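Might I ask for a little of your time on a matter of protein folding? What I wish to show you is a protein chain and, alongside it, a tokenised description of its three-dimensional fold. I should value your view on which stretches of the chain appear to form regular backbone elements. You will find the record immediately after this paragraph:
***
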Amino acid sequence: MRSRCEIVQDLLPLYVDGAVSRETAEFVKGHLVVCARCRAVQTRLLRSKHWNPEYAAAAEHPEQQPEGEELFRRYIRQWKRRMGLAFAGIASAGMALVWWMG
């Protein structure tokens, strides 16, 4: 059987995203209290460029964590927002190119 640290480190990305059950969140949180090595891994994960602070807040308070469908709705809203910004940027660049060429 794998050690607790390996299990917790496998679960950390899901824990940071707030995508684990309350029981799992409590298990991971309890381990992080006593294990400096796993806390360091969590810190590196939280500082990565792909981290979303909204999910980390949910991981810190699993009792307030959105479940299934609500989590999916939030993900879709964020995706739509990012795609809208990407489209606006591409459209602006295209208009600038047309203006510059014309």
